[in-house]
Design a protein that fits this description.
By secondary structure, this protein is of the alpha+beta class. It has a single domain, classed as START domain (Alpha-D-Glucose-1,6-Bisphosphate, Chain A, domain 4). It contains 5 helices and 8 strands; from the N terminus they run αββααββββββαα. α2 packs across α5. The protein is globular, with a radius of gyration of 18 Å.
Length: about 190
Amino acid sequence: MRRSILLLMAVCMAHTASAADMRSVNVEHEDGRYTMVSEVWFDATVEQVFDVFRRWDLSTQFSSAIVESRDEAADELGRPQYYVRNRGCVLFFCRSFERQGHVELEVNEVLRAFANPETSDFLLSNETWSFVAKDGGTVVSYHMLMKPKFWVPPGIGPYFIKRKLENDGGDAIDRIEEIAQGVVIEPEDIVE
């Protein structure tokens, strides 16, 4: 029995030692705009982690707030497109909201997503992820600037949105890491 307990503890400690690490997260709100800056370390290669982030259709597998997501055909300028539908609640106020837009990328270095305000529930929603190999894994630096079109209850709304953005990342980063660790990069998979 003691041996089983020690083995279980060792397995749990080994899993924890290689778990994704949220190194920093900061959310600000001013004049209806939300800014989030974070840094996460993943126990996976840059290529593996980048591959997870560039594939919008994987988003529902790691974020409980995303109820639908997909990669879409390139626009007339050749830019990859994406679609995401989120569902979130602030106290008793629940709503679904959509983002649709284009993506710019520098393979395994930077990924940028820009929501189109004409087809999204945001006046502004710009995101940037930067990928760097570090400490035997990958550090992803994230910057998001958004301004929703929808009404947010004054006073409590901004507080709860900030809190949700700060707190919901932990489970998601562990799932991202798990997906990334299973990614096998083949030479023909590399997007230019």
